[in-house]
Amino acid sequence: MEKKHSGGERPPLSDFNEAQREAVCHREGPCMVLAGPGSGKTAVITGRLEWMIRHFRIRPEEILVITFTKYAVKEMKERFLARMGLKHCPVTFGTFHGIYYGMLRQIYHLAPDQILTEEEQKAMAEAAVRDVERENRKRPKDKDVLLMIGKVKNNGGFSGITDDPEDRQIYHAYEKRKKEAGRIDFDDMLLLCYQLFCRQPQILKKWQERYPYILIDEFQDSSKIQYEIIKLLAGKRANLFVVGDDDQAIYGFRGATPGIMKQFMEDFPQASLVRLSVNYRSSAFIVQASGKVIRKNKFRFSKDLEAVHDRGKPVHVQELKDMEQEAEYVAAAVKKKLEEGVPPEEISVIFRTVQDASMVMSAFMNRGIPFFMKEKAFHLFEHFIAEDMKAYFRIAMGERNRSDFLRVINRPNRYISRSALEKERTDFEDLKLFYCDKEWMLDRIDAFEEDMEAVSRMAPYAAFQFLLKKTGYQEYLKEYSQKMQIEEAELTEIVDELAQSMKKMDTMKEWIEFTQVYTDRIRQMEKEEKFTKGKTALLTMHGAKGLEYRCVYIIEAQEGSIPHRKAIVEEEIEEERRLFYVAMTRAKEELSICYVKEKNGKEVYPSRFVQELFTRPRQEAR
Questions:
Q1: What is the pTM of this model?
Q2: What region does 415 belong to: left with phi over 0, alpha with psi -120 to 50, or beta?
């Protein structure tokens, strides 16, 4: 519990352990605090702010505190004011983008509507892709264009980000469109701020005098350009107090520099280094297990965390047959916890990607377990393959809607023209009449009709397998993946999840109705407020960062999921291991890790990170 102190009173240090006190009382010059999970970093930052103001007599207006999300800014400010016992204090709290926007607004008189919204940015990026497609006369590879553009800007250039000429084309097409519209995006604010400080030293000096003391939370998530601006702001005095954990650096994919903390110590060799090594959150079992995993990473600061709590149980690892069995296992385990009196908000299920959660969401719905998804849910039954199957099933059930025929008539290609489907209600006789003088087309229509008659007598799972293998739909998916330049494995995962959802259904009508109920409930859930009492959290490993729960279930802990199949080089594997470490260290008392033996019809193996739990720990050099 943080204590409140009156204005003239010297704040006590009894709240803190020895390492925390060292950080709180640091006087001037650069300081880096290595803060492991649950080590009380927010208390240290707010305690240091109080110490600076009340003991060092530093004016609050001279202090700048930066963190990475608006939510974190709000929480940090509230914790600080509560500690000070004040309703207001003129310390500046903000995100990197928020602070830099404030600086640029004063110089360039930027209006809020000059900055692209996320939706506008997405539309502009899609337009840039179309520009390149027209120029090259081929579709660019399927990729997250905005992610690539953001990484280039946060890195200060293409070097080390991408050597693909197509990426450069898309980037320049996007920049051209943006310039013509007279707009900027969020990452432009970083570049503009950096250029401003480099070109106009008098403006830089003004801001250096305004904020001689800078504190940065979650420093490990900083990008190269953010760090360069901060170094300029800090100037020769270098009153930089940075807090972070290189073991929780998980945003390399969007431009953060994983080695930024080691870089800080190289740039500021005179800096104090404080290690917060006491974990106040997790049990000794969880601290020891997560430590075994993260110590396998080579590029990190060595650190040995110790737990203060001996409560809890040993980390449990569970092998399951497939995703369906895994989802049922987790749903049953969570239901049991709820019956034992564990509050729903003290339980979370954590996974690598939103797609991994589909089966668990379905199992939770079936058991009436209240839950929310922090990130936007993956709408499995709105995927084009699911929509195709619904159309096929409706035709097989005797429905004759033109839209259903249009959707699947050429998936796979049967060479049937849209002109043959002019009526709102279409049947096979109309198609035969249209092609009455083309015997080879009549054969195709007969084959399609026979396939639908065969499907009409099947349960959903069998019907799905028939459509995949007997009609050529599987080959169509293969051709589609090549044409759209996406991984075939991505579509295979969708096929497998759809197949799993059909296994227990008796009729196609039942499955279609289930998909509608499921989708409606997910949409309703997305409208509701998140992080409310009475709901279990479903989180990606990225989304779980900074949160904590009494009971945590990590699912899909097999090779290909975590580490993700796209992680190949050592640097990427180490980031995946950090992700797994973040997931493990969200747990306070109980941690269960699940993996499956079979996925997409193939045998899969437990994640190497799970296997590392059962190896002898490596001794670290200090």
A1: 0.85
A2: left
